Amino acid sequence: MNKSEHQGSGICGGVRRLSVVIPVYNEGATIGCMLERVWAALLPAGVEREIIVVDDCSNDATLDELRTAVAKLPAGVVKWEAQSSNRGKGACLRRGIELATGDVIVVQDADLEYDPADYARMLAPILSGDADVVYGSRFLRKRRVTTRIHRFVNWALTWLANQFCPERLTDVHTGLKMFRADLLRGLELCEERFGFCPEVTVKLARVPGVRWREVPVSYNPRCRADGKKIGVSDGVRAVYCLFRYGVLRNSAQGHGDLGGDQSDEAQGRGQFEARNRRPLWQWLLAFKVCYLGLVLLLVLCFPRMNESMFDRAMKCWPLNEEISFSSYWATWDGAHYLYLSKEGYERGEGSCAFFPLWPMLIRAGAWLTGGNYLLIGLILANALSFFALLWFHKLVRERFGNSVANVALLLMLAYPGALFLQFVYSESLFLFLLMGLSLALERRRWGLAAVAALLLPMTRGLGIFAVAPLAWYYMSRSRKQMRLGVLLMPLSGYAAYLAWMWLLTGNPFEGFHAQTQWKVGLAGEVTQVNSALNLFNVPEFIIKFVTINGLHVYFGSFLDRVWFVLMLIILPLLWRRDREWFWWALALGLMPAVVCSLVSFTRYLLMAFPVFVAWAILLAPARRRVWLYCVVFELALIHFNLLLRHINFYWAG
Hints:
Low-confidence stretches: 1-12, 250-276, 520-526
Distance between the termini: 56 Å
Shape: elongated
Number of strands: 9
Number of helices: 27
Mean pLDDT: 84
Largest sheet: 7 strands, mixed
Strand content: 5-15%
Radius of gyration: 30 Å
Structural class: alpha/beta
Helix content: 40-55%
């Protein structure tokens, strides 16, 4: 679409009318002044204006003020309509667009935050034929106009929306947007409330040939006391809209007639979407940013740390200090790892139960952050899990296809145990090494496979069980396909762990001694939770399995048992589809469940990556898509609940 095409359509220099659509709800104090400003705004020569006001069933003096203001303006300039019920900004805008007769439509809030004097600046690129959509950006000016939290939320939502747009916008949620009228009318808009902004942005981005511009505009922010209505729930809805219209719906839902026949148009859309399809790493990065942003929002807006548990915990962060902002990011095991990173291992200390590779890695990287152990821990955890998830998708795609890989990754991200991939836990490093080992075996890179297999038991005791799938791999293939040394590496890694503990504490079995501090009462007995001896006591495991003490508690968690049963049900499918990954699921799923008496199984199951692949095989077919959405939704709800518990020092696994 070039400038000459616009000239022929009569849109460029021939714009005859600008339609200003104003949604209103309880703006009696500002609607009169806003209409005066819209009428007084200077427009290019030859461009007339019409003002369309849609009242969203206001319950204050808005309608009276509106009638008074309309009476002061020339007849026919203002069209207004009152909704019979309160439906939201998006519904008002849809009605206003239906009533508009102009060649260009601008969306204007009624709360005086945005100045109509900016209309001429926004019209300029449309009149010159250089743009079809113009957003008025609050952030192109150097002057700071919003609070830090507001800026951060806007930045995060805009960054996420930019994953769908050909242009890099700076302010997707601006209240001042201008569109070619035919283009806007061609969209099928659905959102009722503030979801209009991400919805219209994503749907316009899918129309081939649309040209975007941003211009700086004035902004006079107001607060809730002044009547501002957008809230946290609208931010969550915005994220939902971006994924709903950007991911779940892969084709444009209607568009303006930009010229050319239907075949050319379809071909153009396909080329546009091919150019702007975001690679997986960008989606994962967006997920990480949004997740950490959500945690930050929860900490800043809803601080409610469980002080009683914080005071009783074996280790808290910061060390020997009161609850602070950093405490929410380093609860439970995270505080132990940070303590070991800073203070090191000491004989008789309960934290010695944790394996040393992860805290030593944090300690080695602390110089990058000026000694801030928490910050480097968060950076490393998210960076390692980022690459681990990319490799997981790659492995599944090569074996089962892209559709199963996408669903498996989605299930893993939604699964509640995935919350520990964002915090200072060893799960990120362990999954990174696990995926590295699997990829190295696929590529026959025996040196890399040996290093990964060696480091797994030094990260978590679970790593020694890698011997089982490696033995299957060795026996089921010719010896030329795997070196015997790789099979011995998990045992060597565990021996290195014992040697490391001997070097650090003077006792190679100090970790086992420290684990005796984690005990649980069962029928009047004192039971060792983490013990390899549990593998040989099946009757006791059965008793523990049927002993349920709560929905999600330290010992006797109903939720942990649900995951265990779901894992057992799926094992036969893995046996039929991929014997090697069956042994990985057995080693990384069944073994920790028995050894740890199902304690923290919500966490441990995340490492049994073939289980998620088996679930994905069942849910990936298109005929089961509704089931997939229901499962992901339920997992996400549980995930969010456990996230709230985790950052507030309640048990989350």
